[in-house]
Sequence to fold (350 residues):
Amino acid sequence: MKQKLALSCALVHSPSVLLLDEPTTGVDPVSRKEFWDMLTLLKERDITIVASTPYLDEVRRCERVAFLDHGVVRGIDTPEVVLDRFADVFNPPGITREHDTEAAGGNVIEVSHLVKAYGTFHAVDDISFSVRKGEIFGFLGANGAGKTTAMHMLTGLNQPTSGTGMVAGYDIRTQHELIKRHIGYMSQRFSLYEDLTVAENIRLFAGIYGMRDEEIARKTDEALERLQFSEHKNDLVASLPLGWKQKLAFTVSIFHEPSVVFLDEPTGGVDPATRRQFWELIYDAAQRGITVFVTTHYMDEAEYCDRISIMVDGKIKAMGTPNELKHEFNQPDMDHVFTHLARQAERSSD
Fold:
């Protein structure tokens, strides 16, 4: 609603050109489609629209696309031509993973009939699911569907109204402080201290997690080498590019080798190539047995998950592997599955 209001404000003087700088970052797929439908109507009024976006589905809705790389325009053409010409950037190799195969270690998360109510309003309305060790579990839903509320209960930040839940072997109702010691967490804002250096951030969070000094020193060197950050360990985080901050924040969140790491829209506003590099880090963590619980508004990222749940109005409306869900709802990709469920919910509420 804020973005629609901002668009209305930008149009109040009837401009001939409208410049939009990533106007839909952090917005769910259905709301983004509605926003771009509004842009289509504006185009019919002969308003020229120039928009920057990290979403490939939005790129495909443009008539022409300019691809910028390190300040240089590398190509201008139709979306199909640009995405094909620079496929190595937008779809680099190495993002392949057999779904539903690293799941031999039992459940790390178990939820049964979980409810969070505020008066008569149920933000989370009787959800049940489980997540296995080493699984990458996508937790999807539109803005306001209840994802963040559910995640706050699982991470010990909020207490459920009713129902039960276990995370890393601990009860979310009575052992939330123990849960916090055995999980990692990364939010969209990265949870880093900008006025500290790279090494200081790692040392700070490792100390909070109770790691010993000698272990911190050893693992810090290993982490910096793996990220190719060794020459930048004394750089202030504020000076780092966004993609670097993202990788560092993820590394910090799993530095203590937690049983499960919760990622709350960790790649918002990041370009497709950097997002895929980030997902390679996620795959590596899952291979080491760390369970990854991730929310995202990028439906191409949903395709990378082993299993997915989709929340609508506080309830889980669908769950399965990406292929299972596409088959169940007869849709070509997860973007269409998500939109189908949202439209179905709208029709049932009318």
